[in-house]
Amino acid sequence: MSNVAAVGAQAPAKKLKAKSRGGIALFRWLTRNWVWDGFILVCIIANAVILGYDAHYGETNAYHSRIEQWNQYFLYIFTAELLLEFLAAGPKKYFTNGWNIFDVVVVGLSYIAVNPAISALRTLRVVRVFRLVSAVPQMRRVVEALFGAMPGILATLAILSIVFYIGAVMGTTLFHDEPGFRDLGESALTLFALSQFDGWGDTIARLQPHYPYAWFFVMAFTVIAAFAVLNLFIGVIVEAVQAAPQEEIKDDLGEVHEDVEQIAEKQEDAAVVQKRILDEVRALRLEIAALRGAPPAE
Q1: For the CA atoms of the chain, what is the radius of gyration?
Q2: Any long-range contacts for 204-208 (C-beta under 8 Å, 24+ apart)?
Q3: Do 78 and 127 sit in the same domain of this protein?
């Protein structure tokens, strides 16, 4: 049988190079299902409801002590959730996900808010409601779209600031003696109200008797600020929201590609093992034929 061992030793042994998902499979099975997601979502909503009830009726309500106790229970549940998610994903993959970092920060702020002596800190408990955003995929897509649109939003905000500054300087120069236009600050506030159509007719009625051209200035500013520049925000955000599902599809395709690579590499490794077995069977047949003194059967 030494020849069999020799042949087995000489057979090519290829190590499996499949990419590791990271984390522990048991915890991935526990946390990657609709039951787990639904339970966490119900806990977040229930925690938000009792916090709102306690804030509405004050600390003198009959359920205050019980609400405080349930707040602690929910905090422990959310902490256990973070721990299980961490074990399911592994350190590297867990902390490369921005939503996981967001959850850690929110739960950490909840621990700071445990101190009952500082009422200002206790208000941080309501920050836990923000976890609805990370728990609901549709909300996550909207927030991710907003962050993706941030460069366009900032550029639009810069354009709007320039428009308001020019309008404030012109308004202060033209209507310096009128209330609401005595300085740049008042003019900016008045123009902001006009861009929201707040007191639009009253402003024109007040300026028109003394400044016949006031209607043109007010209308021109409103059209530029309210209809043109502000609508740019909508366009930028809509474009980002439309692009968000495409990014999610790319992420899903990346995960599927990793799964396919793992399957292919495991199949390749299985083929190597099968070849080794066949070589050992051939060597065994050679030894048996040699012992019988007859040529091996093909």
Answers
A1: 34
A2: 206/178, 206/179, 207/175, 207/178
A3: yes
Using CA atoms, how far residue 126 sits from 9, 41, 92, 104, in Å, is 64, 15, 29, 15
Q: Domain ends where: 98, 119, 135? A: 135
Question: Are 162 and 245 part of one and the same domain?
Answer: yes
Tell me, yes or no, whether 289 and 146 share the same domain. Answer: yes
Give the amino acid at 101: I
> What amino acid occupies position 84?
L
Share of the chain above pLDDT 90, in %: 11
Provide the pLDDT for residue 3.
46
Residue 166 pLDDT more than 90? yes
- Tens of pLDDT along 195-217? 888 878 888 888 888 888 888 98
Give a yes or no: residue 278 inside a domain.
Answer: yes
Contact assessment for residue 124 and residue 115, using Cβ atoms and an 8 Å cutoff = no
Residues 244 and 185 both lie in one domain: yes
Separation CA 131–CA 41 (nearest Å):
9
* 175 secondary structure, DSSP code: S
Domain co-membership, 126 together with 209: no
Within 10 angstroms of residue 68's Cβ, the number of other Cβ atoms is 16
Q: How far is residue 116's CA from residue 122's CA, in Å, rounded to a whole number?
A: 7
Q: Which domain holds residue 70?
A: 25-135
